[in-house]
Amino acid sequence: MIEVLQAGLCDLVMDRGRPGQSALGVPAGGAADPDAFAAANRLVGNDDGAAGLEIAQRGPLLRFPRGAVVALTGVPFAARRSSGAPVAWNETLVLAAGESLHLEQARHGCRCWLAVQGGIAVPSLLGSRSTFLPGAFGGHAGRALRAGDCLALGMAVREVRLRRGRPPLRDAATPLRVVAGPQAGQFDDAGLAAFFGSAYRVDAAADRRGVRLAGPAVSHVRGELPSQGVLPGAIQVPPDGQPIILGWDGPVTGGYPVIATVIGADWSRLAQLRTGDAARFATVGVEAARALAQEDWDIRDLG
Length: 303
Fold this sequence. Notes:
Layout: E1 2-6, E2 10-14, H1 34-43, E3 52-56, E4 61-64, E5 68-74, E6 77-81, E7 92-95, E8 99-106, E9 111-116, E10 150-151, E11 163-166, E12 176-180, H2 189-197, E13 200-202, E14 210-214, E15 228-229, E16 234-236, E17 244-246, E18 253-254, E19 258-262, H3 267-270, E20 278-279, E21 281-283, H4 286-292, E22 298-301
Parallel strand pairs: 12-21
Antiparallel strand pairs: 1-4, 1-10, 2-3, 3-9, 4-8, 5-7, 5-9, 6-8, 11-22, 12-19, 13-14, 13-20, 14-17, 15-18, 16-17, 16-19
């Protein structure tokens, strides 16, 4: 069991999401960085899709009455254990019965993921335990965690093995890599030059539905289109010319032209954007994007 003694800014129960539910108007959702989330699960011996926590910017104070085997991936937060033992990222941690874990502020970036051996045992809805905030369902009561919440854990299926993970190296200062969007041809030279030659800033309105950017306007020939299917990472350009990167809980259809789409290998960096961060873009080919998607975390047993 996990007891929430103090809630963070936005602590959500997540798994790999609900792919295939777009016809119902439900996006795939799930963890914002699927690779980091899967790596956390592997570090505690879970299947990749076991439910854990996605924690944004400022984390919770959690107590584990019966102890637990946990792992943290993503960006490091200022963190402490009630036992005084160090809190390591990308490594298996064993918590004693009654021990608490306090995740404070992210040192940089936005999100981390907490896996617990056995997974978080909330009900599955539409094939997933992930929280879908816009629809107020899934996860724990369809909302972010609050002080006083208690989360049940599933049964551990593997013995405790201490592991350490080494994530793929991804430079946060380099541009987000994108492939051309279906309406890229509708943008004039000035619009393309603005989009690829400028640094944009993440707007305060950014959330899991979409990352709004502010910067030079991206001009295009047509302002709106008939509604079309869209996916996370698609970059829409509304009439005001300010790009919006669709997020994990974003709409499944949209009527604005899509200039480009962030490749899967850079979702880890997309997940860490926070208000005020700079974002730039660079194109890659589809085959290169597929090859980059094959990168994986290095997980090794200790000892």
